[in-house]
Amino acid sequence: MTQNDNTNCSGGSVFKFVSGVSAVEHLLCGRLKFTRIRDLNDPSELLPTVDKQELKESLNALRQRGHSQEDIVALRQAEKLMSLLSPKEVVISAPSDTIQADNILQYHIYDNIEYMIKKIGITAENFRNKIGLFCASRTYDCLPMWAHYSNNAKGYVVEFAGLADAFPKDDTGLIGELLPVTYDRHISGVTFDPQSYKSIFLAKYPDWSYERERRIIQPLNLCETTTLPDRSEIYTRSIEKSRVRSLIFGWHSPNCEKEHLASFVNSINPTVKCYTANVDMGSVVLSDLNR
User: Fold this and answer.
1) DSSP class of 209
2) For residue 291, what pLDDT is reported?
3) 181: number of CA atoms within 13 Å, CB side?
4) Rounded distance, CA 121 to CA 50, Å?
5) Whole-model pTM above 0.85?
6) 128: how many CB neighbours lie within 10 A of its CB?
7) Cβ distance 262 to 289 under 8 Å?
8) Residue 44 pLDDT more than 90?
9) How far apart are CA 245 and CA 236, in angstroms?
10) Which range, of 19-23, 73-77, 227-231, averages the lowest pLDDT?
11) d(CA 214, CA 19)
12) Please, what is the Cα angle at 198 between 196 and 203, to 5 degrees?
């Protein structure tokens, strides 16, 4: 088992805290649930932070310095993302070069800050309605995570390896990527900086920093939809079950569930390691389930 906190997630493990046996079984089979934004526990998810003065200043600064090649790449990615999730808000195509980008930025419409804030809000709302998130952590030994997401350690943690390569990539730089969340009391809002829109998806307040979150973004229309008896819907996508590396049992998980899940693991993917978690001097320590 590996645990680190690199910004580039390609080679490391991520961990999914879950509370129930059914959720564990789905994960062990490679079935990942993508949660709608409205169902997440953070009420500020995908609500754009826009400061009027900051927006004005970023417009003036970009007009003065001009666009870079990196800005052109970001603008093309933003266009691809909006075409996918908010096509009605795509008014101008991404520029082909820095000269065209600089010329477009002189349009008077961009000086109408109230209008720009309104358009940002509409676009973000479209994003909220059309995507789901698979959220995981870079750590398995966070006690609040065990309490909040694994039912006071009656639940489980599933370790994945190679999730960075589990989904097809596209030209947005966001969809299908395993991306780190940043935490800051002052979230840099959406501005005229061509990279700033990514803060809508990846910036959270530091209250959540203990989660050390990594997330995968997927359009809901690419997911398999299951309608439950209460008419709510679950959105899932499947990956190779070989990407599951281990299953960790909470220190309060019932013995009958341990026996059932250990047998389930052995039947579908015996390469998955099973561990029992315990707390020693305030730290989560693991031992082999069979010891």
Assistant:
1) G
2) 57
3) 27
4) 9
5) yes
6) 17
7) yes
8) no
9) 20
10) 227-231
11) 19
12) 100
